[in-house]
Design brief:
By secondary structure, the chain is of the alpha+beta class. It has 2 helices and 3 strands, in the order βααββ. A hairpin with a 2-residue loop joins β2 and β3.
Length: 74
Amino acid sequence: MRNIDIIKAGDCLPELIEQSIDGNDVIITRGGQPVVKLVPITGQKKKRHFGSAKGLIKISKDFDEPLKDFKDYI
């Protein structure tokens, strides 16, 4: 976690923003008291690509067969 005074923060704001994006906590203080915390905005999802998991998933040939454990319930 990095604490920086508000006056010094104005001089190096782009650097502080990059640190925040990289996952480091950045606290801006005034008179030694914390007043602002820089937090990256999350939730921006990457666009999905059709077929990107092709070949990664395998389904057994008997996946739709009744389960032996549930024979009494069928």
